[in-house]
Structures are given as structure tokens and as C-alpha cells.
Write a structure and sequence with these properties.
The protein is α/β, with parallel strands linked by helices. It has two domains: 179 residues, P-loop containing nucleotide triphosphate hydrolases (Rossmann fold, 3-Layer(aba) Sandwich), CATH 3.40.50.300; 69 residues, no CATH class. It has eight helices and nine strands. The strands form two sheets. Strands 5-6-7-3-8-9 form a six-stranded mixed beta sheet, with helices on both faces. The chain has a three-stranded antiparallel beta sheet with strand order 2-1-4, covered by helices on one side. α3 crosses α4. It is globular, with a radius of gyration of 20 Å. It binds adenosine-5'-diphosphate and magnesium ion. The site of magnesium ion has 2 residues, from α1.
Length: 277
């Protein structure tokens, strides 16, 4: 290299990359077709779309629970086998809190550390920190059934965070909660993301929730499941209740709503005329 040549570092691989992925279930259902996506470190991505468009299937593929029928996926530029090593940790939160009913909240949260044989003293300290991070510092000793639905989801979130994941995957985690509780949990999740600098992929069918939380919204459509748009969400980094009624928030919601309505209308018209989209 001569002195006049600038040193250009090789671009780092995306944290997650999905290249021309199809997913056909054994019963013949085509859940996803030609999905292409790259997720960069530190992003907050929402997968937004109607029921049946393949959001959960795609998230399960990110988690290595499902595999593509065609196409390629990479995690930190590597095959799935490298996930779990330092700097490449991943956790998933499901729609139900999935807590062990016979174990205390703290024991539930400690489970991933017990499975990893983390010494008890260190594990207890990390559990206390994780519970504190989700606002459950005082509830470690109670059983899950003594908590409200929102608090159970907080415990589930603490269990996912206790391993300090670099990538957090959430599948409609707050979908079963009332709107007020959901808004509160959305705010807390957004603050956690900012504080920890992790990458988040969040599945939802709520336009409002996607706009509130995300740095980028990936819009999906059904039959077959595919990505129809990727929409960056600007606006303030810190999002509070005032953001929910702000002009930029409303504009993003309106634009996404129109995009989804148009896409729905087009696919409906194609179905009527038999045109393949
Ligand atoms: N294990 C499975 N076997 C067969 N079909 C499935 C399976 N899981 C999901 N599907 C189908 O794949 C499509 C996408 O499902 P899913 O990923 O759950 O969508 P979403 O999460 O967006 O509602 C749907 O038609 C669904 O019925
Ligand atoms: Mg789903």
C-alpha cells in the first residue's frame, strides 16, 4: 500500500444476514418466500405484519429453532454453530411468559445460569441485577402465579437478559397484555435497549408498537410470507409518552398504515384476477 492510498477496513459482517430464504413446512405450507434481510449491530428491528405472514417462522430461524428450505443465513458472518460464544450470545422471549410455576421468580431467572454452571454467588448477583433492570427487585422470592401478567413478562424478560445477550429476539411478548401495561413495558424495553447497546428483533402486528420501539421496521405480507418494505424510523432516541402523540410518531404510523393498506389492496386485486404477485 502506498502512502497516498487510504486504508479502508473490510466492512464488518452484519450481525444477522438472510439471503434468499424460503421456508416450506413438511405439510406443504410455504411460510416464507425469497426473504432477504441484513441486521446491523445495535439496531432495534420490528418484524411487522398480519397473522400468518411468517414473522414467528423467521424469528425461529434467527434462533436456530427452524431451518430454511432454501437460501442461506449467517450469524455474525458465520454459520449457526458459533452462536453462544463470547460476543455472540442470543436469547429469546416468547408470547407466553413460560415460567416454571413451582419455582420462585429468582429461580426462574437463574435457570440459564444454572444450566451454564455459573457459580451460585455470581449467579445470584446477576439475577438480582436482572430483576432490578426490569423493575422486579422486590419480587425474587415470590412464585410466578403471585404476579400480574405484565410482571410475569418482566420476569421472562429478566431471564432472557441475565445471560447478557448481544441479540435479543422477542415474539409478540406483550400481545396478551392490556394497552397501558403494554405501553409501559414497551418504554422499559426501549430504555433497556438504549442502556445495554444490544441488538433487538421484535415481532408485532401493531403499527404503533413497531414505530414506538424501532430504529427500523421490516414490513411483511402473507401468502406467501415475504418482506415488502423496510422503513427506517427517525425521531428522538429517547422515546417517552410525549413521543406517542408527537407529529413524527403520527407521520410514521400513517405512512406505514398506507403502505400496508396499498399492499393489501394490490394482493387482493391479484388474487381476484389470478395474477401471481
Ligand atoms: N409447524 C408448522 N407446520 C406447518 N405450517 C406452519 C407451522 N408453523 C407455522 N405454519 C404456517 O406458516 C405460516 C406462517 O406462520 P407464522 O410464522 O406462525 O406466522 P405469524 O407469526 O406471522 O403469524 C402460516 O400459514 C402458518 O399456519
Ligand atoms: Mg407468530
Amino acid at each position: 500500500m502506498t502512502a497516498t492510498e487510504a486504508y479502508i477496513p473490510a466492512p464488518a459482517a452484519p450481525l444477522l444476514s438472510v439471503q434468499r430464504v424460503d421456508k416450506r413446512y413438511p405439510n406443504g405450507t410455504v411460510a416464507l418466500e425469497d426473504v432477504r434481510l441484513a441486521i446491523e449491530p445495535g439496531e432495534f428491528i420490528s418484524l411487522l405484519g398480519p397473522s400468518g405472514c411468517g414473522k414467528s417462522t423467521l424469528l425461529k430461524m434467527f434462533a436456530g429453532i427452524e431451518t430454511p428450505t432454501h437460501g442461506h443465513m449467517r450469524w455474525w458472518g458465520q454459520p449457526f454453530g458459533t452462536v453462544g460464544s463470547k460476543g455472540r450470545r442470543m436469547s429469546m422471549v416468547f408470547q407466553e411468559a413460560t415460567l416454571m410455576p413451582w419455582a420462585t421468580v429468582a429461580e426462574n431467572v437463574r435457570l440459564p445460569l444454572d444450566l451454564a454452571h455459573v457459580p451460585r454467588r455470581e449467579a445470584d448477583a446477576r439475577v438480582a441485577e436482572a430483576l432490578d433492570g426490569v423493575g422486579l427487585a422486590k419480587f425474587g422470592k415470590v412464585l410466578p402465579r403471585e404476579l400480574s401478567g405484565g410482571m410475569q413478562m418482566r420476569a421472562s424478560l429478566a431471564r432472557a437478559l441475565v445471560t447478557e445477550p448481544d441479540l435479543l429476539l422477542l415474539d409478540e411478548p406483550f400481545g396478551a397484555l392490556d394497552e397501558f401495561t403494554r405501553n409501559r413495558l414497551d418504554s422499559d424495553l426501549r430504555a433497556l435497549w438504549q442502556r445495554r447497546g444490544m441488538t433487538v428483533v421484535f415481532v408485532t402486528h401493531s403499527i404503533y408498537e413497531a414505530v414506538y420501539l424501532s430504529s427500523r421496521v421490516v414490513v411483511m405480507q402473507a401468502r406467501p410470507g415475504r418482506i415488502i418494505a423496510e422503513v427506517p424510523i427517525g425521531g428522538p432516541l429517547a422515546r417517552d409518552d410525549a413521543y406517542r402523540v408527537s407529529e413524527p410518531f403520527m407521520q410514521h404510523c400513517k405512512a406505514l398504515s398506507e403502505l400496508i393498506t396499498d399492499a393489501h389492496r394490490a394482493s387482493f386485486a391479484n388474487e381476484e384476477t389470478g395474477v401471481q404477485s
